[in-house]
Amino acid sequence: MKVDLLRTSRRAVLSGLLVSTASVTRLGATAPPLQLPPLSEGSRRLYLVRHGQTDFNVQGRIQGRTTNNPLNDNGLAQATLLAEYLSSQPLEVVASSTLQKATATADAIASRHPAAKRQRLDRFSEMCFGDFEGQPMAAVEKEYKEVVGAWATGDTSRAMPGKRGESPEMVAARGSTGLRALGLIGDAPTAARHVCVVAHPRFNKILIASLLGDLAKASQVAQANACVNVIDLTSDGRSMIRATNLWPFRDSMAMRRLSRSSVGI
């Protein structure tokens, strides 16, 4: 797949994979509205978002496809401010996984876009981490890093341990199917052109790396709680990265309690 890496805020390029950190200022609670270049003719724009914070995030526990946790108070506040940050974008569809932390975040965004169609697709749910789900990362870190390390060497068919554990290739396949269902890829001339999908850290990492053409680099993509990634999908099959891991809050004292240290598992 042909990829264009476009200018983003405070970006870093790691082995050809674009990874950017959030642009942060020091005034007020919400960053200025997201400013993006016009969408080119025949292209579609994906606003790929990570859900807000949960108690498992704070506790350092692994939450995947089978751990359906709600947003905590900080996560609800993040979702509200994220919705304000995206309020100026012409969203036609707001989709999410079926997990409640993602649906609550997406519902907040959709509340600022009453004309947008709201969809929930299980294809956008987090990777199933198998036997690691619900465990403190500290308790399984050695085994977890062994699996993730294998992915980085190119063994992206290796699944997480356990009966339901998934591999990056499995997650990428269902993510691609989800994008196709929304008309973001493939031949769908009447599909929406501005689509927001609220999903999960490892899912987002894998989907972005898949669109860039190298699943082995998924772990290099940072995904903070409530971050925004913007990807233009062109009619000739290119993925144009407009921004990754944008954190939509200003760095005020009032917002310091809202975690922005997590880059996602």
How would you characterize this protein structure?
This protein has a seven-stranded mixed sheet. With 265 residues, it is α/β, with parallel strands linked by helices. The relative contact order is 0.25. α3 links the parallel β5 (93-96) and β6 (117-120). The chain has one domain: 3-Layer(aba) Sandwich (Rossmann fold), CATH 3.40.50.1240. The protein contains six helices and nine strands, in the order ββββααβαβααβαββ. The longest helix has 16 residues, at 137-152. Residues 1-28 and 252-262 have low confidence and may be disordered.
Attribute tags:
6 helices; alpha/beta; Rossmann fold; globular; two-stranded antiparallel sheet
SSE order, one letter for each helix or strand? EEEEHHEHEHHEHEE
| Contiguous helical run count | 6
Contiguous low-pLDDT stretches (5 residues minimum) are 1-28, 252-262
Mean pLDDT: 86
**Percent of residues in beta strands?**
15-25%
**What is the fourth-level CATH superfamily?**
Phosphoglycerate mutase-like
CATH topology call: Rossmann fold
State the distance separating the first and last CA atoms. 26 Å
Q: Please tell me the CATH architecture by its name.
A: 3-Layer(aba) Sandwich
Q: Portion of residues in helices?
A: 25-40%
By DSSP, the count of extended strands is 9
Dominant shape: globular
Described by strand count, sense and barrel closure, the largest sheet is: 7 strands, mixed
Count of individual domains: 1
The CATH class designation is Alpha Beta
- Largest sheet strand order: 1-9-8-4-7-5-6
